[in-house]
Input
Amino acid sequence: MSRAIERAARRAALSGSGPTTDDSAAEARFPGARSAFGLLGEVLLVGILVALVSLPLLTLPAALAAGVRHLRRYLKAEDSALDWFWRDVRAGLMGSLGVGAASVMLVLVLLLDIDLATTGLLPGGPIVGLVGWLGLAALALALFTAAGRWTPELGWLGALKSVPGALRDDVAGGAYLVATAGFAGVVTWQLLPLVIPALGCIALAIVAVPERPRRGRVAPGTDGGE
Output
């Protein structure tokens, strides 16, 4: 009975609904996320920041990478002042413009293929449409993974080079990120203002998916801040 009470107290401490102790904070995987409402607010804040920075579209990779690094610092109870977010934006902006431009061009081409496939004018339209959707999923997966691995020291070229290895080592994690992209696309399509919480949820997923417990795996030592 005492063990059940202890487990309940620990869950309450980690969720922010009960008192915390030094031991529970030390054992928490993400000590900065003990309050569910605090985490929700931070996710929404990141969504707003990423949406603002990525308004030109070409700056989306830098905005997403900065948002991911901010959330990672927050979750690990490190210095998560907004100054660090803007420093990351400035550090990653120039290098991400090429990534953003290539991504926008590829998205437009794939959307055009999907649109043409639905008209019935192309032979093998269903196959063309399927290839288009798979291409969008692969692009989102590569962008999310690179944004999660980017650091000012590694740069965008290094982050992109690390994508194949990261996906090969965690196939299930890649599937989770694709599902996150699909969810974000659906909710944004239903109601455009939902793009803000969707972007925050994407950043949270990029942080949380590689950190999830897996059999025979040690938690990655991904850089979480300065």
Observations:
- Residues 91 and 204 are 21 Å apart (CA to CA).
- The chain has nine helices and no strands.
